[in-house]
Amino acid sequence: MVVGIIGSGTMGIGIAQVAATSGCDVFLFDANSAQTEKALQNLQKTLDQLVGKQKISLEKSRMIFSRIKCCTELSDFIDCDLVIEAIIENKEIKTKVFQNLEEIVSDQCIISSNTSSISITSLSSELKNPERFIGIHFFNPAPLMPLVEIIPGLLTEKKLARKIYSLMESWGKIPVIAKDVPGFIVNRIARPFYGEALRIAEENIATPEQIDDAMRTLGNFRMGPFELMDLIGIDVNFSVTKTVYTDYFYDPKYKPSLLQQRMAEAKLLGRKTGKGFYDYSENAEKPAPEKDGELYQTIFDRIISMLINEAVEAKRLGIANDEDLELAMQKGVNYPKGLLAWGFEIGYGKISETLQKLYEEYQEERYRQSPLLRGMVN
């Protein structure tokens, strides 16, 4: 199979590595040729490290690298069977690229986007042949994260999702199929992990350090929400939240945080700028949180209840089947358990009670319960 990748940023080169490792010939294009050159240099370093750790042989490393061909023109994609776009999250820019691409590739070529939050139906609607367009959403870093969300739009040919599902399995990935809704599975359900944590910090109920510590110690999350936002990039996380909020017609559940906006404006974006909610400069010490068992329990109950409620609502709306909903959160963002199973373990009655108390305290639709949750009280 011949695969074209548009965009040679972290995600683009990561997808290229996955495809090449699986035996595909890969054409890599970026309007910024210097970016492509840098990406290939970084890939070589990554492959050298894998060889050094004896994860792959030197021969395999050379084979992977040789399968990725740098392109200077989109016209080099003429023989591609599949194209995956991984550029800036901007609908107008993406649409223009897809329209140009349609004039180059064959009618049989599948065109896809790695978008994390833009509607697949919306992106395909401007194309001459929208039936062959689909969302294939990898998670960063693509070579390490197993989950791939497959998102057919309303105009996508019915059998294409299953075809891509099988392809992703052959690439060693764990695919799930999601409805074309804002945020798909992971970026929709995960919003309260960040949003509710930010709300708690904004109200001076707890510090970011305390919130992170509570979620790690009580929830067994690998990273707390503020650590994770710093890793993802505060601007990137904020942008996804804004997209989901806007696309859900300003539903209060997804309302962005003013604190996060101010951090983005100050260019305190996390690890990539050296400072975000934490300081990553060379000799900086991470502040130790002031531990408080009762406060920690309140933090955990509040965030986990919001997450479970969101998963239950996704189930109610049929965004994906139960198995895929559970898999997506465990394999896409490393949650220690599937949220539906977690709700059963804690007790849906307790989740409902926590949300009801928050609703009564704040009088905000943000804390409304899924109609299905009330029916699941045990």
Keywords:
single chain; 378 residues; alpha/beta; 8-stranded mixed β-sheet; 17 helices; 50% helix; 10% strand
**Fraction in helix:** 40-55%
Structural class from helices and strands? alpha/beta
Largest sheet composition:
8 strands, mixed
The 3D shape can be described as globular
The percent range for strand residues is 5-15%
Task: Describe what you observe in this structure.
Helices cover 50% and strands 10% of the residues. It has 17 helices and eight strands. It has helices at 10-21, 33-52, 58-66, 91-102, 120-124, 160-170, 186-189, 191-202, 208-219, 225-232, 234-247, 258-265, 293-316, 322-332, 339-346, 348-362, 371-375; strands at residues 2-6, 25-29, 68-71, 82-85, 110-113, 133-138, 147-152, 174-177. The chain has an eight-stranded mixed sheet with strand order 3-2-1-4-5-6-7-8. α4 links the parallel β4 (82-85) and β5. α8 runs antiparallel to α13 (293-316), α9 crosses α13 (293-316) and α15 (339-346) packs across α16. The relative contact order is 0.09. The model has no long low-confidence stretch (mean pLDDT 96).
Secondary structure topology:
Layout: E1 2-6, H1 10-21, E2 25-29, H2 33-52, H3 58-66, E3 68-71, E4 82-85, H4 91-102, E5 110-113, H5 120-124, E6 133-138, E7 147-152, H6 160-170, E8 174-177, H7 186-189, H8 191-202, H9 208-219, H10 225-232, H11 234-247, H12 258-265, H13 293-316, H14 322-332, H15 339-346, H16 348-362, H17 371-375
Parallel strand pairs: 1-2, 1-4, 2-3, 4-5, 5-6, 7-8
Antiparallel strand pairs: 6-7
